[in-house]
Amino acid sequence: MNGIRIASLAVATAALALSLAACNTTNPRDRAIGGAAIGGATGAVVGGVATGRAGGALAGGAIGAASGAIIGHTTAPRR
Asked: What are the residue boundaries of the Glycine zipper domain, all occurrences included (predicted)?
């Protein structure tokens, strides 16, 4: 991957993360979905950049999505 493509992908991921983070919800299910989206996108970028292969991006995305869902669900405020 060339530097411009990596930078573009990083900017797009950051924009996605910020737009999803702006959604304020206290529902644990909604927080898990948002966490999975942010974690999956970030994990895919990191995995793809670190390995330079599609398999690394898929593995990073899967691990990031699972981690994000767990963290999002457990950090939701309880009513």
From this structure: 34-74
For 55-64, how does the pLDDT look when each residue is reduced to its tens digit (9 = 90+)? 999 999 999 9
What residue spans define the domains of the chain?
Answer: 26-79
DSSP H helices in the chain: 3-21, 28-51, 54-74
Task: Give residues with Cβ within 8 angstroms of 38, minimum separation 6.
Answer: 16, 17, 20, 21, 68
**End-to-end alpha carbon distance in the chain:** 46
* Closest to 37 measured CA to CA, from 66, 6, 76: 66
Output phi, psi for 52, to 5 deg: 75, 15
In the numeric block, the tokens 């670190």 are attached to 50
| Closest among 11, 8, 73 to 36, alpha carbons compared | 73
Of the chain, the percentage scoring pLDDT greater than 90 comes to 32
